[in-house]
Each structure stands twice: as structure tokens, then as C-alpha cells.
Amino acid sequence: MATAIPKISLSSSRDIPFNRLVLSQSNVRRVKSGLSIEELARDIERRGLLQSLNVRPVVDDAGVETGTYEVPAGGRRFRALELLVKQKKLAKTAPVPCVVREAGSAILAEDDSLAENVQRVALHPLDQFRAFRDMLEKGISEEEIAAAFFVALRWSRPFGQFCGLDKLYP
Questions:
Q1: Of 8, 54, 63, 64, which has the maximum CB count within 10 A?
Q2: What's the CATH code, domain 12-118?
Q3: What is the pTM of this model?
Q4: Distance in angstroms (rounded) separating the CA atoms of residues 125 and 113
């Protein structure tokens, strides 16, 4: 007799006011690298938040949810939103898209934070070249691309030419 394969259930998602969010001490990222918080804030200001925060309800000593949520995964995004609030570009009660893990989940907050950082795969340079090329063809200037993606102007256009990719992959 065949046994049923257990189905997974995904965490719910919802908008939570920014002032109900706090950065979790379970966030595993401690060393700053890559884009600065200021650059990420400028990017969020330009295009909006592209990826939800991963949150968990904060509970009191009796195990009752307090209405506040900690952010163990998405700390850089949280800090960028916090900067936008300080700059008065985002209301402190603005709704923030969040994936909500249940309080008392068997999955540790550190597990979520680590997985979010380890599971990501950087874009291949050829794919980046093609995306820049497509944006150029659709009327975005080299300067706009370089500014939007925090790359030197020389990388927004000539990268493919420098490597000969424009001839291999027209």
C-alpha cells in the first residue's frame, strides 16, 4: 500500500507596520560586506522593496504574542527601511511585506537567517551583461544603469565588449 507524501505548508505573508518590527539578535550577519545600507535604501526608494522580510512574533513571558515582530532574516533590508524612516521618506507606520513564521516554530531563527544568506546564488556575469544590454536597448542610459546597480560606468556597457561577449552572444 502506498503511503501519502506529507505536504509542506508555507508560512503566511502579510503587511506589518514598520514600527511593529524590531531587528532580531538571531540574525547571523555580523560582518558588513557588499552594498552599504545607504545604497540599499536608495535602491528601495527607487524601486520599492523587492523581497519580503522574514519575521517571527515576539511573545511575552506567558507565551502571548505582543504585536511586535522580530526580523531574523532581512536585517539589511530592515536597516535600509529604518534609514528611510529616519530620513522621513517612509512613514514609520508604513506596511512592510513580511513572511511570518509561527511563534515557537521548530525551525530556529538563526536557521532562517543563515539559509537566506547561504542559499542565494549570484547572477552570472553573462546574464548581467545581457540584462544591461537589454536595458540599453530599451532606452535606459549607461549612466542610469551604472547608478541604479552601483557599478562603475565601464561595467554597465563595455563589460560584454571587454570580454568579447557581445560577439559570442549577440
A1: 54
A2: 3.90.1530.10
A3: 0.78
A4: 26
